[in-house]
Write a structure and sequence with these properties.
globular, Cytochrome C Oxidase, Chain A, single chain, 389 residues, mainly alpha
Length: 389
């Protein structure tokens, strides 16, 4: 079983992402609602944001890249010792941060910042040798790493606003990645599913809309670097929401409603224009209903897309049919429930803030309990078709 776990890039990192999500949010919710002490000496909000972004999301990102790069380049997949070393780095960073009061800050910073360069070194060789069109993703990885650098600078200099801004820009970088990669896989997987039903391709990807969507998200990232929370940032967010909404309308969402493994991709992408629209409303008018726009993007868009990709890729790369367990369909819905409660629970549902945190955390934790319960055996056991990987 252990050898199977390190037989392909997605296996350990998807499992780690699921376990991290399962543990991190209830710990944070317990700390916020009941005052349970965190093991980390970091400010609680910064610990929560950093570990969700550079713990949970980064592990899922690593699993995706270590699986996608061999497919893109036609070269051998990553397995064995390189994966074990990456997992060791990721775990070491999580343990050091969780007990940060016991260790020199420089040691924590060095270990945490080692993971993304190590990942980049692994995937750079195949991308550069094959002259893949996806090679620019190395620049995205570098930029994402730099946001973590700035985060640690903020901590070391006792500058929480700088650390928080770094987290927001890091989220923007991941949203750019989802816009690029999600913009390819959502229509492709939609058309593939329609073909199995004997239906013609219905999802389209117009180059102009794609270019505008990517450019808009890059512009949001730049604005959040240099002019965050300004009226200009609100206007750009409004423009991006319109473009991303128009992009989604090309993809024939209504044709996917009988296939959870497909409609969840559309659902996750739909949270991007919703989150951007709420951001625009919050920055331009200050309306209370839009105050928690960030969680529409982090829980609704990023987390749901991560789970959608992990559940699909894990089935396909272990020789299984692309049909999710009904418990996973429930997990998809629970994540949207978590996002909806976290974003609208205070203003629209009339809940108090501790109840919002507790209920959203309950939905989230149940979703990832289902994911780990269903997928841990899949990720730890050999392919059912007897092939390597």
């Amino acid at each position: 079983m252990s050898s199977s776990l390190f037989a392909y890039g997605f296996r350990p990192h998807f499992l780690l992402a699921g376990v991290a999500a399962l543990l991190l949010v209830p710990v944070w919710a317990s700390s916020f609602v009941m005052g349970t002490p965190l093991g980390s000496s970091w400010p609680p909000m910064l610990w929560h944001g950093h570990e969700m972004l550079f713990g949970f999301i980064t592990s899922a990102m690593a699993g995706f890249l270590l699986t996608a790069v061999p497919s893109w380049t036609g070269q051998k997949g990553f397995a064995g010792r390189p994966l074990i070393m990456l997992v060791g780095l990721w775990l070491a960073a999580r343990l050091l941060i969780a007990s940060s009061g016991l260790w020199p800050p420089v040691l924590i910073t060095a270990v945490d910042l080692a993971f993304l360069p190590a990942l980049a070194l692994l995937v750079a060789g195949p991308l550069l040798r094959s002259r893949s069109r996806n090679t620019p993703l190395l620049l995205v990885l570098a930029l994402f790493w730099l946001t973590d650098v700035v985060f640690h600078m903020g901590l070391l200099r006792s500058n929480p606003p700088l650390a928080l801004q770094a987290l927001h820009v890091g989220i923007d970088v991941v949203l750019v990645l989802v816009t690029v990669i999600g913009g390819r896989i959502v229509p492709a997987f939609t058309n593939s599913a329609l073909r199995t039903l004997g239906l013609p391709d219905a999802a389209r990807n117009r180059a102009v809309v794609t270019g505008l969507a990517v450019a808009a998200m890059v512009l949001i990232m730049l604005i959040d670097m240099f002019a965050p929370e300004t009226r200009l940032a609100g206007l750009i967010a409004a423009l991006a929401a319109v473009v991303q909404g128009a992009r989604l309308l090309q993809w024939a969402t209504w044709r996917t409603l009988r296939q959870p493994i497909v409609w969840v991709l559309h659902l996750s992408y739909a949270w991007i224009p919703v989150g951007l629209a709420l951001k625009a409303v919050a920055l331009l008018s200050g309306a209370a209903i839009a105050a928690f726009w960030l969680h529409a993007l982090t829980i609704g868009a990023l987390t749901t897309m991560i789970v959608a990709v992990m559940t699909r890729a894990s089935l396909g790369h272990t020789g299984r049919a692309l049909v999710v367990d009904p418990l996973i369909t429930l997990a998809y819905l629970l994540l949207t429930g978590a996002a909806s409660i976290r974003v609208f629970g205070l203003s629209a549902l009339g809940l108090n803030y501790p109840s919002v945190i507790a209920l959203a955390a309950l939905c989230w934790t149940t979703a990832f309990l289902l994911f780990v319960g269903v997928y841990a055996p899949i990720l730890c056991r050999p392919r059912i078709d007897g092939k390597a990987g």
